[in-house]
Give the backbone structure.
Amino acid sequence: MNPERWRKVEALFHAALERAPEVRPAYLDGACSADADLRRQVELLLSQAEQAGSFLEIPAVEDLTVTATTAGSLLDRQVGPYRIVSPLGVGGMGEVYRAHDSKLGRDVAIKTLPAEFARDPERLARFRREARTLASLNHPNIAAIYGLEESGDVDCLVLELVEGDTLSGPLPLDKALEYARQVAEALEAAHEKGIVHRDLKPNNVKVTPQGRVKVLDFGLAKAIWGPEENQDLSQLATVTNVETVAGHILGTPPYMSPEQARARDVDKRTDIWAFGCLLYELLTGKRAFQGETLKDTIAAVLEREPDWQALPAKTPAKIRELLRQCLQKDAGRRLQTIADARGTIEMAQRGWSRWRVATVTAAALALLAAGALWVLKPKPATAVRAEFSRVTSQPGVEWFPSLSPDGKWLVYAADSGVSNRHIYLQSVNGQNPLDLTRDSTANDDQPAFSPDGERIAFRSSRDGGGIFVMGRTGEAVRRVTRAGFNPSWSPDGTQLAFATDGVAIYPQNNGGELWTVTVNTGETRRLLDRDATLPSWSPHNQRIAFTLWRGGPAKGGVWTIPVKGGIATPVTNDPSREWNPVWSPDGKYLYFVSDRGGSMNLWRVAIDEVSGKTVAEPEPITTPAAYLAHPSLSADGKRIAYSSVLITANIQQLTLDTSSIATKGDPAWVTTGSRLWSQPDPSPDGEWVVFYSLTQPEGPLYVSHPDGTGLRQVTNDMAINRVPRWSPDSKWIVSISDRSGPMALWKIRPDGSELRQLTERGGGFYPTWSPDGSRIAAAIGGIEGRDTAVWIFDPNRPWKQQNAEALPDWPQGHFTPTSWSADGEYLAGMEADSESNGSNGSTGIATYSLRSQKYEKLTNFGQWPAWFPDNRHVLFVADGKAFFAVDTQSKQVRKIFSVARDVIGPPRLTRDGTKAYYSRRVTESDIWLMTLK
């Protein structure tokens, strides 16, 4: 379409738009006369204006040289299996039609590509490469790309047809946050695959009649036009109507990031900017950046702030701060991951109703509405103002910060850019960290500044592992202990407290002991012999606070014990997960991490340092973190460093070659998004996969088809369920549950019916079905006065009628079965020495012969074995980083799959052994600094 023709179409479009819909046909009859194609183009524009079409939908100005399709109308034409039914819209890149798929019996959207594609083989080839990547996006909040069709003189893109309205504001706060959260999940899924939208705006987001958000046209701007087509809009002459700019510009001016408007390289932070614009518009009904001309709009994007006063008064402070972070003009200072935005929104969704009803004065609420960040206190008149700043923003994990006593320096552990974790020193106001352990090939972690700031204690895996000490800048490294995690200095700097088991971000069943060691001599002393982690020495040498596992799944509690030893005293005692205690410098408060407010965030409680008794109720210290960990205070108590952690855990499927016991291809995601899924098990009939929700909420069982479709919740009470396992006939699911109080084994039908308790107070852990479904092996305690042992029982009889059979004890400690061989002859399980605890302390893989009643050790490492159907090979995971296969006859071990930074969970095999299902946890963590005012 030449420029003169386009100007005529545009003029008629605006003239018709000014008239009432009922008189437009008569107007077009006269204006278009016998030019049917002209009328068609105008009607398509009018249709698009009414339906808010998707990609680059506004007409292009003359100097952008848009080429529309030259094929004429496609109405009633057949393009491959698709019959064109009706027009949907038109834009700078072509036309959009509704079409019917005769093969699958569904309607789709057909988007024509510019005719210039057919004349440019290189561009078409590039588009096909990009389209393959875009087609890999599989997420419920992303409109799918089905394929590319070529028919004669027309190239068409086949897209999911999304019914519903495009987004517009203002919306009620709860609805605006829910829609924004779904948009963030879509962006998160795309960014994980390296795909940037580049043109996110309300008109590219639809809401289906069911309330599901669908983001349209992911990555099409780059796929179609390519980055070389960008123009520096900051240098364009004035254009009267901003709404006439589109075409080859990769984006829409009011939603463009500053770097996009200047035609600079863009990355996922451009989408984060556009997301901020979108959220602002949903809340206010106004564009964040708007001008009468293109030049005015670009000037607003580059130079001006949005009207923050336009935000509704009820907008939570966290959302206000999120908007400011998203709309930072310097991309380096902008929010770095959309997952952080999603986490903040989820926290606001869960917590705002509680904050709103808290006893806070009207003056404090007014300040919150003005955008200030506050530490909320339970008493009406108290509020402490604080500022937050991000100190690190590298990919991967930066965590376990420790502030120097003067609050000016930070030491932390990170895996950025190296294969093993190192320890870094960085100014709290700087950007250039110093690698203190750059010469180490071991994992160095959990650093802690000494009280005088001259030394750093840390955990290292070097030379068998233990606690080490080095100088402030990494010199003079020396070993202090040959075991231990999470060191904490005594106030005089002469001793360290440590635990024999470590915790990173999951307070759970850890079996560590609590010890102290004299730094100079290495002399050790045990304070507590049970389940203690994460010690913190009080500032006046009175007590040591620590996390104690209390017997429930993944529930930590905060306790203290006198430095000289004695009786431990609880600090918290409720169902929440509470962990990672840190003393305030004056000893009057104990800070800790808790999910009692709905998300894992910072709390503190007033405490008597001498007795360990609390003197008030805990109070929240709310931060912008979706999941907070590892708080550290400066010596004056005015600065708090912490890890802001983003965790996702989804289910993956890995294809295996059973003849060679090797992997085939890359793993495929079964689930996506921000929920934390764990412990999948495929049904023997191949129809379903069962798993449980680790959080949000915690504990329900779910099933889905192997491709992730058909997700359905099985349990819906308050019980926490763990380790679900299908019966061999696929008719039952057995799992660990606290439904009746103490942990026990329960079974349930996959449709949620016929819930039954199998074991009683003795519990029952890691249930393992026999191949015929007549027996279950599980670790159960309290039977016949014995400690926990492996018992085999009949899952089809009440517990009081059982005649359970006990396996002989493992000579060196414990044996926990996790898989029964297909021939019914063997159990495979984890073995641990008498000093270890459960799967966390596994020291290898072993088998038990039901025929000979003898054990055989296979490996000195690994957890969670699963039998292949050949009854010879066993698959297992080691340290959450790799899958191994061991030949039970030759005892040869081979690594068959591994990950770098992620953590993979226990593998479970399909009946034919060709698929392995497991959870994959991805952790990102940055260091933030809170400065109290």
Notes: The first helix runs from residue 3 to 17. The longest strand covers residues 639-657. The radius of gyration is 31 Å. Residues 388 and 930 are 5 Å apart (CA to CA).
